[in-house]
Amino acid sequence: MRAATKLLAAGAGAAGALAARTLLSRALLLKLRRGVRALNAGDIEPLLSGFAPDAVLRFNDGEHRWAGEHRGKAAIARFLREFAAAGLQGQITELFIAGPPWRMTLLARFDDHAHDPAGEEIYRNRTILLARTRWGRVVFQEDFYEDTQRILALETRLSELGVHPRV
Fold first, then answer.
1. Most buried one in 12, 61, 66, 96, CB count within 10 A?
2. Looking at the 3D structure of the chain, how many domains does it have?
3. pLDDT reading at 27 higher than 70
């Protein structure tokens, strides 16, 4: 009887942990989607608030306004402002999490696109965002694009439209 009770308690604990993990994943996905909707509307604050003060955002190198490593919230804020100013629109379609709350790793699929003033699509890409967190704040993020040449083509098109980096 004692072994059966222990087995039942272990099963209940495992089910509870799984349910908690599922709820955490859904809550994070909702928070990130809300932040991206705000970014799409030009408001960077909801996403920016999720970064630690010393966070690093790494974006692929190249001849474009987003290239390189962005260290600290001020640099990340500039990166997000450039994203919004370029008219980019995105959405998170999937989220995977691993690790304990004090040191989580997130993988998110992020699809983005942009249109010119006439409504013609000038950019579309798919991205995987890798983020490492510490107690709910992003401390490191690196973005991996399906096609980095599309970013360079977007930069050229934005320059032709007169949308220059704000620096």
1. 66
2. 1
3. yes
166 domain residue, yes or no: no
Residue 54, domain member (yes or no): yes
State how far the alpha carbon of 9 is from the alpha carbons of 1, 116, 144, in Å. 12, 59, 43
Structure confidence at residue 14 (pLDDT)? 61
pLDDT in the model for residue 152: 92
Distances (CA, A) of 116 to 19, 58, 120, 159: 44, 27, 5, 12
Helix 72-85 and helix 2-40, axial crossing angle in degrees, nearest 10: 60
Nearest to 46 by CA among 83, 88, 78, 77: 77
- Token pair of 104, please? 């989580």
**Under a CB-based contact definition with an 8 Å cutoff, are residues 121 and 113 in contact?**
yes
pTM, to two decimals: 0.86
Residues spanned by the domain of 117: 2-160
